[in-house]
Amino acid sequence: MSSKDVILGRVRAALRDTPTPEPVVRDYRRSFPAADLELLVDRLVDYRATVHRVAADAVAASVSGITGGTVVVPPGLPLGWRPPGALPDDGLAPDRIAAADAVLTAAAVAVAETGTIVLDASPDQGRRIITLLPDVHIVVLRPDQVVASVPEAVARLDPARPLTWISGPSATSDIELNRVEGVHGPRHLHVLLLER
Amino acid sequence: MTTFLGMPATAPRGVGHLRGDEPFPRAAHTALADGQLRRNLRHATTTIRAKSGRVIAELPDWQELRSAGSAIKADVLSRLPELLERLEARVTERGGVVHWAADANEANAIVTELVRRTGAERVIKVKSMATQEIALNEALEAAGIQPVETDLAELIVQLGQDRPSHILVPAIHRNRSEIRDIFLRAMPGVDPGLTDDPPALAAAARRYLRETFLSTRVAISGANFGIAETGTLAVVESEGNGRMCLTLPETLITVMGIEKVVPAWTDLEVFLQLLPRASTGERMNPYTTMWTGVTPGDGPQNFHLVLLDNGRSAVLADRVGRQALHCIRCSACLNVCPVYERTGGHAYGSVYPGPIGAVLSPQLTGVEDNASLPFASSLCGACFDACPVKIDIPSILVHLRNQAPHPPAEKAVMRAAAYAMSRPRLYARAQRAAKLARIAGRRGRALPPPLSGWTAARDLPEVPRQTFRDWWAAR
Ligand code: SF4
């Protein structure tokens, strides 16, 4: 008898005579008004992200204003967004990524209510490793990518892709339960919110 | 004998961290005498309660989300076999390998063998209650493999050769200056001028672990959710150590309790709203990673999922007690518990402390092996109100008390102990009365019931005068 059979047999025995549970009632909020960009900005700032409102043709210049150092970019990032000297990820070794000053990516979805940005590893966001090792992460966000709530974000995302939900820079609550920014992930998160 | 193999089984003795060395009242005795511990706990739990209350108040549909979370979990348990098999199928289709572990021994053997096959002598770990429960670190060490805890609080516990005392913040019993002392003593290469400023402590951990993250080929994690419909696993974290472990190594081994499966992708819309607000009191935790099997060219190229029973089927067999398996390990019930706030987590003896531990540990091990835990509560009900998935902990406690193999007198003693511990004035009165009684040589008689029974059993914790005054004044 395999362990799988043992476990499933135990579970079936444990559930004998169990009545069918009540159906799941989903009367929490599932439809929402249009996302409030001001709320998103407020929530991002509250969790120590830095927000820049920029025109679509000013991305590269804004990035150069944030860092003069090496900026890793995913292979599919729009060419017009890249600052001069950007380092495209063509399978860079981890130590080269770690040595870079910053990483610049697009995003998949953002949630206004929680100040969350989700990456789904599309070509304009890249492998998960590139947004993890540099100390500065710069994310470009289009207004149409912002939803009001978590349920809307879940509905937009494809679980077959690797997903990273990011709410502010790396932080910990492990010392006396106070939030302290900056542990292992990027210690600085900049969001370039494009103008409509 | 196959019918016996199919019977729900409790977690085996002799392995894992579900049983304490001494009963709760005696262990609590030690904790109550430690004024520093109580101050640390009080400060931390007060902070988190306020934060959590604020962000929960922002959601107009908190109660509806709780009800949905509870109903989803009840649905999961009622069709667990089907969901587990679906999860297995989806993970396998996407290039993962699924293993089934009937108990701690089997899980430890599977993981150890998987690590051995990679040839790695060191693994990085992201905080996981399941691997603490089965004492995986000890099993790996016995096999010559070094497990490195990467969560800051786990690191503090590991470097301090200490035991975790909270689900979410295992080093909650340590304050900043104690943490600095531990780092100065045990962290290789630490700056001798390290201060106790929390950002400086966090930066020290960052420096210490960076190289380890980049050079370790195998990671071990737990999982907050495993989605049957898609085969997706989710790990919710803060520091980025989770992302490091889930992204950088070649091989990832995830150990997940069988109750962590959820039916559908959409169900995450409920739990991702409940968990961070109840847990760290944030609208959303800094990082959540979700992955489905293996993604070519991105992240670990070998993925193993170990599904763990270790007593869960026995919990499931109890109609009243099974709702303890709804737990999403947010730790809100610990943070509101008046008994936990005074005794801390170590007194519970198990990796699952506080109210959830008082109902989960005895069920996982069988009540006879954790007989005092169902009494480690005053039944005040704060845990039930705080629980984001509406687990009725007080009712399970009462249910388990009736099963506990204690003579009635002893039951009364422990009930009284817990009752008084949650009410400092009563506790103080009991203590004073006990002292008078001792002076008068009439132990116990001077106390009104139910506290009389407690004194008679000589379990009245003695609190040093100074600490007691602090405590009294602080209320
Ligand atoms: S029992 Fe409820 S409150 Fe306690 S840790 Fe589990 S989910 Fe959180």
UniProtKB/TrEMBL annotation, chain A:
Domain of life: Bacteria
Domain (LUD): residue spans on this chain: 96-194
Name under which the protein is recorded: LUD domain-containing protein
TrEMBL record, chain B:
GO terms of biological process kind: lactate metabolic process
Molecular functions per Gene Ontology: 4 iron, 4 sulfur cluster binding; metal ion binding
Keywords: 4Fe-4S, Electron transport, Iron, Iron-sulfur, Metal-binding, Repeat, Transport
SUPFAM superfamilies (alphabetical): 4Fe-4S ferredoxins, NagB/RpiA/CoA transferase-like
Domain of life of the source: Bacteria
Segments forming domain Lactate utilization protein B C-terminal: 402-475
Signal sequence segment: none
Domain LUD, chain residue ranges per copy: 84-294
Region (Disordered): 1-20
Chain ranges of the 4Fe-4S ferredoxin-type domain: 324-391
PANTHER family xref list: LACTATE UTILIZATION PROTEIN B
Name assigned to this protein: Iron-sulfur cluster-binding protein
